[in-house]
Write a structure and sequence with these properties.
Elements lengths: L62 H25 L2 E8 L5 H9 L7 E4 L6 H4 L17 E5 L8 H4 L5 H20 L2 E9 L2 H13 L9 H6 L3 H15 L6 E5 L3 H14 L33
Length: 311
């Protein structure tokens, strides 16, 4: 079995700096070298005014360019999925970030071409009364992957360090306890052989405001907004401070954070997927051959008895 690379704390800086965020800054102490050298600068990407992403700043990556770069990455993700099945390894990807940053779209891009029986998206709602009486991490444990599986967490146990703490849904004592326990919980996962990758998506408030307006005006995206999201608009700085405390406490050698610039969501998705692929074992597992013999007779047609008739 190929050995995974020894992990050191990943730099707390966006993996793609082609459009560095100015409003979503990190503390000076947490700005080492660039996290992902494999995330291309995308300077060669030409903006397509006829296909400008809604809610994007001028110069946003065109859909055609995005899809052209996404296709080989999705092929690599399928190879990764075969490797996981072949070796029995487990992969957990935690996607956190500000409201409207693009967590759901990123997870959809990863999972789009993967077997849904192998790749599971975990997006839990607010805890029930019973879950509130459990150990905090307990509700997440049943969603961890089994042998050969992938779990993509659209928000995760880090709710406690972010929205719960900012909005007052937990006490300061509970938040402090979480920050102590999270590195221990993640160490247990890694020690058991889980491949754990954690991402925080950054977005400036001006861009965030554009996306909120878009969601309010688009009936197909209206479900993405909640009263909590609207209230969070006035707490942008508070979320930044809580994020910094979270990074300081949970950015560890065994489970480092990687921050990704999502002011352009398409470039952000590509950078994140490139980083993910670069930080798992690069082992080619060819698909198992599946012989396809001749059918042996003329193709049959559907034959239904009354009153059944296809619509």
């Amino acid at each position: 079995m190929p050995k995974t690379k020894a992990k050191t704390p990943a730099p707390l800086e966006p993996a793609d700096r082609s459009q560095p965020g100015k409003g979503d800054k990190l503390p000076k102490a947490d700005r080492p070298v660039k996290a992902d050298k494999l995330a291309k600068s995308d300077k060669s990407d030409k903006s397509d005014k006829s296909d400008k992403p809604s809610g994007k700043s001028p110069g946003g990556m065109s859909k055609a360019d995005y899809l052209a770069e996404l296709e080989p990455l999705q092929l690599a993700l399928n190879n990764l999925a075969r490797w996981l099945q072949h070796t029995g390894r487990r992969l957990v990807v935690v996607v956190e970030g500000r409201d409207t940053a693009g967590k759901g779209g990123t997870i959809s891009a990863i999972a789009q071409t993967l077997n849904p029986r192998q790749c599971h998206v975990v997006a839990l709602g607010k805890p029930s009364d019973r879950e509130r009486g459990q150990w905090y991490f307990q509700r997440y444990v049943p969603h961890l992957p089994a042998s050969g599986e992938i779990a993509l967490f659209d928000r995760s146990w880090y709710n406690r360090a972010g929205v719960e703490r900012v909005m007052g849904y937990c006490t300061e004592s509970e938040a402090a306890q979480f920050l102590k326990q999270a590195p221990v919980f993640e160490q247990l996962l890694v020690d058991d052989g889980v491949l754990l990758l954690k991402y925080w998506l950054t977005v400036d408030q001006a861009e965030q405001e554009q996306r909120i307006v878009e969601r309010l005006q688009d009936p197909l995206k209206r479900w993405k907004l909640s009263p909590v999201d609207l209230e969070a608009r006035s707490r942008y700085a508070d979320y930044g401070r809580m994020r910094d405390l979270m990074l300081q406490a949970t950015h560890t050698p065994h489970a480092p954070w990687t921050l990704v610039n999502f002011n352009d969501q398409r470039r952000g998705r590509l950078a994140l997927i490139r980083h993910l692929l670069a930080h798992v074992p690069d082992t080619q597992i060819p698909p198992e051959p599946m012989p396809l013999p001749p059918l042996g007779h003329a193709p049959l047609t559907e034959s239904l008895k009354r009153p059944f008739k296809p619509i």
